[in-house]
Write a structure and sequence with these properties.
This protein is an alpha/beta fold and about 260 residues long. It has six helices and 15 strands.
């Protein structure tokens, strides 16, 4: 059974952190409706939802992915790169504690979960404005005893590694090669985003279905042309906060 942790949209989301896009007005009610439909999609794809209430004073807290990295054997509680986001990790740690042994990224390391991409026993960690080499070294030290290999990958032009590359099937990645070096992912099959849709590399694989933003129809067709099952969801309001389909959930196998 898959568990999907989500958190309702904060009423303060208009004050979210932004790095690579200009600020736009976010309509809270629309964002919440879109988020509920996203949660419904997760449930219909077989996830058991664990829904947390909105954090009134934490604008970015809907993006639960950044607070933790959950693997089969353990969970790593991050230390987000934006100081304003660090309080988001406490309720996530409390929720995950019954499911996994917890490890934590320590100062001076900074890491957002959106910078960590797992494919089997290989973990790619993005060097970005939010994640530094110290945190990647800590992650490597934690994961190595469990048989994981951690590779640091430089990210440019976007917020997180998963803004540039995500998994859409076993050993198949969706990528914007302008934002990350394709050579860092040797041995993987690569599907490139349509050049007109540079922000279209963020996809969420749930079972064998790719949950994908409705905004990027050209790239969606590329996925479908490769025989992948794609289900679209509209997260256009949360995209104004540099959010995507991976950002809004933490999905992991249920284990006691």
């Amino acid at each position: 059974m898959l568990v999907a942790v989500t958190r309702d949209v904060s009423p303060a989301i208009g004050r979210c952190e932004l790095t690579h896009i200009r600020r736009q007005t976010i309509t809270l009610n629309t964002a919440r409706v879109q988020h509920r439909l996203y949660e419904r999609s997760l449930a219909e794809l077989g996830c058991r939802l664990h829904q947390l209430p909105a954090e009134e004073e934490l604008p970015d807290s809907v993006f639960v992915e950044d607070a933790a990295i959950v693997l089969d054997e353990l969970a790593v509680i991050t230390r987000p790169g934006a100081e304003s986001r660090r309080p988001e990790t406490r309720p996530i740690a409390d929720l995950l504690a019954p499911y996994r042994k917890l490890f934590r990224i320590q100062q001076p390391g900074t890491m957002d979960g959106g910078d960590v991409l797992q494919t089997g026993k290989t973990v790619f960690a993005g060097l970005s404005t939010r994640t530094n080499l110290e945190a990647i070294d800590q992650l490597r030290a934690v994961l190595s005893p469990f048989g994981y290999t951690v590779h640091a990958v430089q990210v440019k032009g976007c917020l997180h590694l998963k803004s540039a590359v995500t998994a859409v099937a076993e050993d198949t990645l969706l990528m914007n090669p302008e934002w990350v070096d394709e050579e860092a992912f040797k041995g993987k099959e690569i599907i490139r985003v349509d050049p007109a849709e540079p922000r279209g590399a963020n996809a969420l694989l749930v079972g064998r279905t790719v949950l994908y933003p409705a905004a990027y129809s050209r790239t969606r067709r590329r996925l479908e042309d490769q025989g992948l099952t794609v289900r679209t969801v509209d997260l256009s309001e949360l995209a104004k906060a540099e959010g995507g389909v991976t950002c809004c959930s933490l999905i992991f196998d249920y284990r006691q």
